[in-house]
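Hi! If you just cloned this repository, the fastest way to understand the data is to look at a raw example. We've pasted two of them here, unedited. The first protein comes first, obviously.
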Amino acid sequence: MLQNLQIKNFALIEQLHIDFSDKLSIITGETGAGKSILLGALGLVLGNRADLTSLKDKEKKCVIEAHFKISDYKLKDFFLQNDLDYEDTTIIRREILPSGKSRAFVNDSPVNLQELQKLGNYLIDIHSQQQTRELSDEGYQMQIVDAIAGNRELIVDYKKQLSGLKKIQIQLAEAKERKADLTKEQDYNTFLLQELVDAKLKDGEQEELESELEKLSNVEFIKESLAKAISLTNDEQVGAMQTLKEVKTALQKVSTISGEYNQFFERVSSLLIELDDVTDELSQNFELLVDDPARLTLINQKLQLIYTLQKKHNVANVGELITIQNELESSALQSDELESTIEKLETELTNSKVKIDKVAVTLSEKRKAAIPVLTDKVTAILTQLGMPNARFNFEVKYSDSYYATGKDTMSLLFSANKGTDFGLLKKVASGGEMSRIMLSVKAVLAEYSKLPTIIFDEIDTGVSGEISNKMGDIMKAMSSGMQVFAITHLPQIAAKGDQHYKVFKTTQEETTVSELKLLSKDERVKEIAEMLSGKDISDSALNHARALLN
């Protein structure tokens, strides 16, 4: 419940500190006195956006602080999930700075507006004329029926499963899209892969083939050059081998004289051994050189194939071609894996739908069972409110689609009078009828769920006389189990309150100020009498006011 409210520098309010009871509190005042300002301040506490127009004095900050007793609301999990300090008496403070910045705190912990709005939904239900219009909304109608049906835990389960179902659907759609993209390219990729496979490429092969091609293309020139080199080395008269042997013999004679000459001798001996090895290898290589036109043709063909593939794939070497071949093979495997993934996801989707459908069916059945209870209770209350012939027809249809709270669609049809056909509520109910219907619905909901503090903002619009008296009785009955506020212009409702507050304007020097005052018993008599007869209060009005209060 809302225990007290403190407002500083907001709109026409300079400073206000007011305590509230846990029963039925009445708020009255002339039009424009500031009742909407009070609701605006509460709206900021509940997370509404603010701007500098909210500041009375633009040089000072605006502070709105509300104390809530929440021990009966079972909100410890909410505080834990949002990393907030839980207190049985929770303090929400909202500050608007002259710079235009806004800050919000819950038990002195900073929070953002989204968190504040979520918390606010558990604390106060401000029933305005706008919410009365929401009665025509299918989603709101479903919430009402679900509250009577006790579907809260089922809906939590359904939403969890729906989230999982949507996740699978997204994964399946993505997998199918990837598969479709691969399929479009598959034929061409298969052709490219086969080309590379048939080429039987090996890393480093191009360099080896180009070297062999160079040899085979110049075999005669190479043989001629090798033959000349061998001849110059092995000639018995002037060959390099014979000359080195003579140099070796000459140096051998002096090698024992000095280490220096011995070193020369050993170096020439090494040269002779190396030259002998080179000559043998040149001879072997010469013997292996064969003019092979067939091999030359094969190498040319293979290199031409490599060059063509390199140009097609825009790469510079065989290694890169092999990389592309591996990628194409991987792509083919990926297509097979995707097919397997799609089959797996389709099975998961089917199983998920079976599970969620069971919950959706249970929700639908419980709704259909709750609707007669709801309609009976609402029509009974409407009878008290002067609508004895009101009839409702909730049309619940089970569909193939998955909605936020099940697979049901709902239409609320209404008839206010005997002999008239049912029509959509928003089209056939007047403003006064809508107000009475909404009050009846709230009264029934109060029996089935722990509603937060509720504020009825002129729910008596379009009603008067005995009907307003009955509306006051209903609000009074609701206040036995919850905190109820009623902003009203009707004396019959005002007389039902446990506490009565008056909003009024005063002029202080050059400024206008709105104030909220808790009325004493005598002040209540005067206020209700004024509501009955206007500013000129008659004795009969005073007597009538006392009668209403008694």
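Ok, and the second one:
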Amino acid sequence: MPIVIRKDEWNRINNWANFDAEDPEVVRRREYVKFLNETSQVMTKAWPNSLENVNKRNEELRIARNLQAEQTNTKFYARYLRKKKEEQERLMYSARDMVFKNKDAPKLLLSAVIETAVQKEREEQVKFLNERRKEEAERKREDDDEIIRKAKEWHELMALRKKRRWDANKQHQKDILDQAHEVAERNRTEYETELNLQKIDNILAREQMDALKKFDEEFRAEERARIFRAIEQDRKETRDRKREQDARDKMDDKLIEVLQKSRCRIEQKRKKTEADLKNEKLRVLEKISQRLESGDAVRNAKEQAILDKAVKEKNDLNEARHQALLKKQEQFRQDRMASRAKFLKDEEQRLRDFNTTRQWDIMNRFKNIEIYEEFQENLRKQKERKIAEYRAEILRLWKEREDREAKERADTRYFYGELAEKKLRAADNKLLTHAAGLLQEAKEHGRPDYALHRAIDAYCKLYRLYPMPDLPRSMQEHFTGYTPWDGSRPDRDYVEPPPPHPRKKAVPLPAPNAPQETTRTNGLQAVDKPGPSKPKEEKKEENVQDYKRSAPANGLQRRNLEQTFSLPPITVVPCTNESCRCELKPGAK
């Protein structure tokens, strides 16, 4: 298939296909632009108002503003931490006290205290109840007399109301019957009228529906007929156009054939006419010469000269005409040869363009195949790399999970072992100290303390705080120096922690790069990381710079959960306070 393009387009395609060649004008232009750029940089390097120096000054100003904002944020954050820490300490103390008082043993002591208070006030309540009973009996007698009097008045009033209501009901019943008859008559009349109107409306609606249906059928029939006529008209016009086109084609063929025949016939007639004209002139001249043979010699010579001259002129004219005809035929032959040569040249150029385009397509096809193979190879390498990375990531996660599970098991053993025993004993000390304080308070107020002693005895028996009985006589000689442990009394070195003061001085904020203790904030209390025998892991340094740069310098930046001191949603966690005894359950949060 030939492609027609301009010469400049073909030159552009050839230049684009030549990858190694580079336009010298482009190279010169690029070198000139590079020279101008270097010269401009050298000239503007020392200018105070150049773009680079202005940007440098702006950057210095920005760094100074950021430094000032960081200092402001540091001060604000230090004040914020102090305030939140004081508030958290108060909340932690109140939460621990609330948790301690909500346990079974403190509730048992509270019940005992309430029982002692009840026993002391029992006699006063009995006296108060006797007086209340006398007052209630007197009030009951007076209320009974008043009720009897009001009942008599109420019965008389009910009888009067019943009689009046019976009379009113009779009159109302009569009025209702009259109204019912009137409404029934009116409803019957309206129903008959409505029924007649509905019948008329149904007749009219049926007539309108029939008319609409008839109109719809006629419209559909007319539409189908119109569509059919339009289709037939289109078919007829198509046939006419096709027939007309065929007739025009035949007429053109006939006209071309007639034109060719007429040209041939005209050429034959012209040649025959010229030959007849020549023969006729020769015949006329021959008759004239025969008539004039009797003339004198001068006249014959003159006439012969005239005849020769005329013959010569006629011959010259015929020769000129013949030469013109030959020249015209030669020119026509040259034009046909030039046209043929131009056609052959154009055809050769078309074939060359076609071959060049086909070669270009073949080269592009091979190049695309190479690119696709390279793409597939890159995909395979990328897949292998991703598989290797995924395998390494899986192995890393596997190792992290094993380490995390080992650490959790160690923490669980420590939490439910040594730490649990310390917390249980701390809870016992706190409760026994609290019970001693309640006994002292009952003694000061003169309340009986039997209930408190019973509650303490039940607690000690429940948690086996009494000392073990003496060993059998046969085993005492093997355990000399053995003294049973008595846990029914607080430890000698136990001191109950005082409540925090609301104006307690806050701990100064540590430096940003200083190492911090291995504690974590969980919303209720600060829990030491379990495992005293394990090496302590240093907590990540608090990145104050990242916190300051996370938002504008307004003191309202948000921190990560590990660094924030705000109060998150409350989550019950194991308590590390030795003076508190929390009831721990495995897996509880």
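That's it. A detail worth noticing about the second one: Residues 295-400 form one domain.
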